[in-house]
Design brief:
Chain lengths: 114, 112
């Protein structure tokens, strides 16, 4: 099956700094990538949808200036958490799909903001 | 907006028991429904995918059913094992290029 990777798997950063998370489709070209967030003991909630070469579409309540998403190529999307705060600590999971095909999920990135 | 609910939220069973996890969704206009397993601190492992035109899918000791009109799905696990302990999530989507709506999850513990 298709493989999606995320890097890093875990990251700890200080409050006020920015951190970038990468999502890569390793063996297919992803026309659409999704970013989800999972708080402890809660389910996954969609943050934004990104299509290659266009601006991301953010879900209600997700600040686009805080969570910067770039989908510059068909195999890479990045999520940058700017001016991170402790409440941004969460598990971030991306998924990728190619046109007309299923979605494949990455292994997730655990972000801890101290 | 699609809402997905899973019952029970937590389940503890002795090893060897058969069990059923329930999932319900409010909007029946789905493309497919997928069951995932999530181990603590880990990502998602896809277990079974049911297309909207299908009624069930089986893989090993797992069987998932779908009743699209009533907005329900069940995941049946036969002869449970301690290694089955995890959180099980169901999710629905309206199309291959569309987001998943995830359920609230069922935390399963199988006691040796």
């Amino acid at each position: 099956g298709a493989v999606v990777s995320q890097h890093p798997s875990r990251v700890i950063c200080k409050s006020g700094t920015s951190v970038k998370i990468e999502c890569r489709s390793l063996d297919f070209q992803a026309t659409t990538m999704f970013w989800y967030r999972q708080f402890p003991k809660q389910s996954l909630m969609l943050m934004a949808t990104s299509n290659e070469g266009s601006k991301a579409t953010y879900e209600q309540g997700v600040e686009k200036d805080k969570f910067l998403i770039n989908h510059a190529s068909l195999t890479l999307s990045t999520l940058t958490v700017t001016s991170a705060h402790p409440e941004d600590s969460s598990f971030y999971i991306c998924s990728a799909s190619r046109l007309g095909n299923e979605q494949y999920f990455g292994p997730g990135t655990r972000l801890t903001v101290t | 907006k699609q809402e997905v609910t899973q019952i029970p939220a937590a389940l503890s069973v002795p090893e060897g028991e058969n069990l059923v996890l329930n999932c319900s969704f409010t909007d029946s206009a789905i493309y497919n429904l997928q069951w995932f397993r999530q181990d603590p601190g880990k990502g998602l492992t896809s277990l079974l995918l049911i297309q909207s035109s299908q009624r069930e899918q089986t893989s090993g000791r797992l069987n998932a059913s779908l009743d699209k009109s009533s907005g329900r799905s069940t995941l049946y696990i036969a002869a449970s094992q301690p290694g089955d302990s995890a959180t099980y999530l169901c999710a629905v989507t309206r199309g291959t290029g569309n987001q998943f709506y995830f359920g609230t999850g069922t935390s399963l513990t199988v006691i040796p």
